[in-house]
Write a structure and sequence with these properties.
By secondary structure, the protein is α/β, with parallel strands linked by helices. It has helices at residues 16-30, 45-49, 56-67, 84-92, 117-128, 157-183, and strands at 3-8, 34-39, 70-76, 102-109, 133-134, 138-141, 145-147, 153-155. The relative contact order is 0.18.
């Protein structure tokens, strides 16, 4: 199937966003995709903030984006937009780094007041980077994500069903993209 880069834009080591992404990665893996996780917070801050395009970690991150057929882009919502950490990485990628790629935008936050952050903040930047197909995204409330003692997560029933649907739509879109690429 496809190679998926699962990109977490959360600055927190105990992030619900990153844990939710890893939970969804398992579903994509079970569907036959190769999933490569990348937590932007693990990249060197000096390289991100100093726009060090030649730093090996930044070069590797750019290569992971380039090699991926699709990306799951997850971010906590702060001040009604995606995280500054995610922005710092996106700013270092080439203008059309997402050309030909299928993208699933996901966000987490503490209140439904931020639910439109995906459509009004994240989707436009992903589109400007040339994403071929941005599937329906999903916003999950922090209260719907429970961190289990083993570090995994459980998701409240309603949110879990919706997340499964958007992940399955993303997976189907990846399959369609792969078939079209093979037919060309």
């Amino acid at each position: 199937m496809a190679t998926v880069l699962s990109l977490s834009g959360s600055p927190s080591a105990t992030s619900r966003t990153a844990r939710l992404l890893r939970h969804l990665d398992a579903r994509l893996t079970a569907q036959g995709h190769q999933v490569v996780p990348l937590d932007v917070r693990t990249l060197p801050a000096a390289a991100l903030l100093g726009a060090d395009f030649s730093h090996p970690a930044i070069v590797r991150a750019k290569a992971l984006v380039e090699q991926a057929d699709g990306l799951v882009v997850g971010t906590p919502v702060y001040k009604a937009a995606y995280s500054g950490l995610l922005k710092s990485l996106l700013d270092l990628l080439p203008q059309y780094a997402l050309a030909g790629k299928t993208v699933l935008p996901l966000a987490t936050g503490g209140t439904t007041a931020h639910v439109l952050a995906i459509d009004y903040a994240l989707r436009p930047v992903l589109s400007s980077m040339g994403a071929a197909h941005i599937v329906q995204g999903w916003f999950t409330l922090d209260k719907d994500i429970t961190v289990e003692p083993d570090g995994g997560v459980s998701v409240a029933a309603g949110a879990a069903k919706a997340l499964e649907q958007v992940v399955d739509q993303f997976s189907a879109a990846l399959g369609h993209t792969t078939v079209l690429a093979a037919a060309s």
